[in-house]
Amino acid sequence: MNNPRGPGDLIVRIDVAATALFAVTAITAAILFDGVAMTIAAVVALVLFFVGIAAFLWSFWNAVQRSRGEQVAVTQLYLLAGGVAPRSVRAPMLIALAVQCAVALVTAISRPNSPDGSPGNSLALGVLVPLFGFGMNGLWAAFHGRYRDRVSKNESTTDQNESHG
After folding, report:
1. Is there a contact between 139 and 13 (Cβ–Cβ < 8 Å)?
2. What's 119's DSSP letter?
3. What pTM was estimated for this model as a whole?
């Protein structure tokens, strides 16, 4: 069965695939709790965090440019709220963000100490990963989201301050 691709489909697929990779590496590291698995999980978490920062900033920049002519809200941009994205995009992306948050929290709490007994371990880096999800949501919404046009001053119905200069 051939599934037609919509705008921004690549962003959704990258978000879901990266979330799966994070979940597998973080859960494996929490279960095995050895150096190699924890290192891999830490590297994956850090890469996703830094990609998320770049995606977040890129999406914010693009949204600011669009906001000159359209009404762009932060909740629309990063939580895909207000009809900015169709359900076929919004559902997998918000589920991916929820999975990122849940896996990060559960794996960080499940092993509060390093293998040598010292407090903290590399699994705590997973709490940075949800920035990837927010960044990907923002990228999709900034490039493919549907927003209402901004009402210009001439079209506004509240011109009461116009005569005040």
Report:
1. no
2. B
3. 0.85
Q: How far apart are CA 103 and CA 87, in angstroms?
A: 23
Q: What is the pLDDT of residues 40-93, one digit of tens each?
A: 999 999 999 999 999 999 999 999 999 999 999 999 999 999 999 999 999 999
For 13-31, give the DSSP string.
Answer: HHHHHHHHHHHHHHHHHHH
How many residues comprise the chain?
A: 165
| First-to-last C-alpha distance (Å) of the chain | 63
- CA-CA distance, 4 to 1, in Å (whole number)? 10
Q: Tell me the CA distances in angstroms from 79 to 18, 59, 155, one per residue in order.
A: 18, 13, 30
> How much of the chain is helix, strand and coil, in % rounded to 5?
70, 5, 25
Q: Pick from 143, 164, 162, 152: which is nearest to 11 by CA? A: 143
Question: What beta strand segments (E) does the chain contain?
Answer: 70-71, 148-149
Tell the burial category of 77 from Cβ atoms under 10 Å away from its Cβ (0-12, 13-18, 19+). Answer: buried
- For residues 36, 42, 43, 49, the Cα torsion angle rounded to the nearest 10 degrees is 170
